[in-house]
Amino acid sequence: MGKLRAKLQKFMIGRYGVDKLSNYLLYGGLIILVLANLFHWSIIGLLGWAAILFGYYRAFSRNRTKRYQENQKFLTFTRQLTRSWNQKRNKFLQRKVYKYYACPNCHKKLRVPRNKGKITITCPHCREKFIKKT
């Protein structure tokens, strides 16, 4: 077992290895394959195999800078999706406590407490004052 491990480590020297994008491709491809087999979708199964093969291609690639750049773009994209999802989720969860308005001057989103009647809202970004009913 030790010799096999040493050979694998020697083989992986200079190669990129597995990162977040490769993991998503490998696991996503596996999930697609399972679903394709359950529902007898042969064309979709090819997409699963393509994702798995591309994941392995990335892991065994020697072009480390290109794979690193791809992974960084993927991480940036997923970070933006996560941030957007969390903002929408928080806004939905706080809908009974806060009301959201856009500043008429700079269009920034402002959060004000509900059920306070007519109030004067001062934008913290541009100091514009406007009156709204909460």
- SS-derived structural category: alpha+beta
The separation of the N and C termini measures 69 Å
Strand content: 5-15%
The parts where pLDDT drops under 50 for at least 5 residues are none
Give me the side-by-side strand order of the main sheet: 1-2
- Helix coverage percent: 55-70%
Strand count: 4
Q: What is the alpha-carbon Rg in Å?
A: 25 Å
CA-based shape: elongated
Largest sheet at a glance?
2 strands, antiparallel
**What series of H and E elements makes up the topology?**
HHHHEEEE
Mean pLDDT: 92
What's the tally of helices?
4
Count of folded domains: 2
Describe the structure.
With 134 residues, the chain is α+β, with helices and mostly antiparallel strands. The chain folds into 2 domains: 16-93, no CATH class; 96-134, no CATH class. The protein is built from 4 helices and 4 strands; from the N terminus they run H-H-H-H-E-E-E-E. It has helices at residues 2-12, 20-39, 42-60, 64-93; strands spanning 98-102, 109-113, 118-122, 129-133. Strands 1-2 form a two-stranded antiparallel sheet. It has a two-stranded antiparallel ribbon with strand order 3-4. Helix 2 packs antiparallel against helix 3. The longest helix has 30 residues, at 64-93. It is elongated and about 75 Å long. The chain crosses the membrane at residues 24-57. Keywords: Membrane, Transmembrane, Transmembrane helix. This is Zn-finger containing protein.
